[in-house]
Amino acid sequence: MMKIGKTLTIFLIVAGFFACNDDDNSVPFEVIGDVYVIKRTVNEEVQYANAYVAWGNQPMSHAEVTTPGAANFTLDPASENLNIYAKEPALAEYSAAAPVEGNYQFLVINEDITHESADLLDFDNIDFTPISSSEMLNNVLSVQWETNSVAEGYQIRLINQSGDLAFSSVALPKQMVRLDIGTNTASGVWYETPEADNVYTIEFLTIRYEDDATSLDASKHIQEIAVTEQEVTWQ
After folding, report:
1. Where do runs of H (alpha helix) occur along 46-180?
2. Residue 138: pLDDT above 70?
3. Alpha-carbon span 59 to 179, nearest angstrom
4. Contacts 24+ apart (CB under 8 A), 185-193
């Protein structure tokens, strides 16, 4: 059975490089709403689901999103400081149907004041990036992948057999084609100590950002993610 890790966790890590103004009321409150498509293979079928994130520069007490079809979803806090609210897709929410394009309306509350933000979802159905090899040598996992012309960035995660995030890389540039992952790597964060014979699912994420995203705010303006999976036994 396929196990889906906590997808947004990686982007909260990436967002750590773009610090929020925690509890700083000296600046006006601002919020960015982001909707993006996650594409993955579920039961040997390519399927899609939306993820939603509201990024505030101060804590929020509520966040929700309304789709172009008028469906409404409540977002949950995704950080202890309440600056980030999110909704991650559950396995049952993935579908073979194409995602609905259009404007998604975000509504959040900060200090009893309602604020709104909109995000336009375009869907290009980006290609999966094939993993060409994943080999272990001297307690280091070397992951190599093929060039993907549509990629604007990559990220690699390891998911353990319980479906929990074990490792997350930093954001990887589109020019890269290999990453070596060891216990002392500076290219990511371990959430557990890998042990011999542990089986992990490699999740290789091909990322497309929104057209107006910059290097400073790309993590808040994701458009699509295509997830390639492969199992590896730690040695």
Report:
1. none
2. yes
3. 36
4. 188/156, 189/13, 190/166, 191/164, 191/165, 191/166, 191/167, 192/160, 192/164, 192/166
Locate 72 and state its tokens.
Answer: 């409404």
User: Among 73-77, 186-190, 199-203, where is mean pLDDT lowest?
Assistant: 186-190
**Structure tokens that stand for 196 in this block:** 């011999």
11 residue type, one letter: F
Give the type of residue at 154. Y
The string of pLDDT tens digits covering residues 89-134 is 988 999 999 999 999 999 999 999 999 999 999 999 999 999 999 9
Question: Which amino acid does the sequence have at 36?
Answer: Y
Which string of DSSP letters, residue by residue, matches 193-215? ---TT-EEEEEEEEEEE-TT--T
Strand partners, 113: 110
pLDDT (tens digit, 9 = 90+) per residue, 191-226? Answer: 999 999 999 999 999 999 998 888 778 888 999 999
